[in-house]
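Example record

The entry below shows one chain as it appears in the dataset: sequence first, then structure tokens.
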Amino acid sequence: MNSVDSKLHQTILLLLVSYFCSFHTYVSGNISALCHPADASSLLQLKRSFRNPNLASWRPGTDCCRWEAVANTASGRVISLDLGWRELRCQGLDPALFNLTSLRYLSMAGTDFMGASLPSFGFELLTEMVHLDFGSTMNLFGQLPIGIARLRKLAMLHFSSYGDTSLFLEEPSFETFVANLSSLRDLYLFAVDISSTGDIWSTQWRV
């Protein structure tokens, strides 16, 4: 087999595999697979933590694969949770979120945390996380959770805030915080105090 035929064969094989995977995902995701019961329970607990849960489709006994702001794999595990810009209010982030260990995308942008801090522990459990967005949050206080620094697949991290808010990174240093984030490509830390980490970080990172 010459190189042209070999490349053609590889191209056809890749197209067939892609088609099969797409077809399998369509069949499994839309007909066969239901939301994993543990994930559905965690989402409902998370909903109860909001003061104004504008999530009408999140109802017990229904398939969470079809709930608004939720995306699932063909196996029914939740991989995406887009709660950004829903005018949500809560007194902190409910630990039920950390049960969703298949999460790859999470947005809490624009959420009012009513003077709470983020949990010190829990983010390290979200090992599949690629996109983490806490942009334009309100009334959020305290140290950035160190567990985020253990998310090796994380490609985008966004923290920004306004209003009566005080976010900071004191321990560990900024350099240590990002040291294990080998997949990180986009980093936004607006209105986050990292002054205690010194000036060395600025030679390698732009924030």
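Notes for this example: The domain at 32-188 is CATH 3.80.10.10 (Leucine-rich repeat, LRR (right-handed beta-alpha superhelix)). Confidence is low (pLDDT under 50) at residues 13-32, 200-207.
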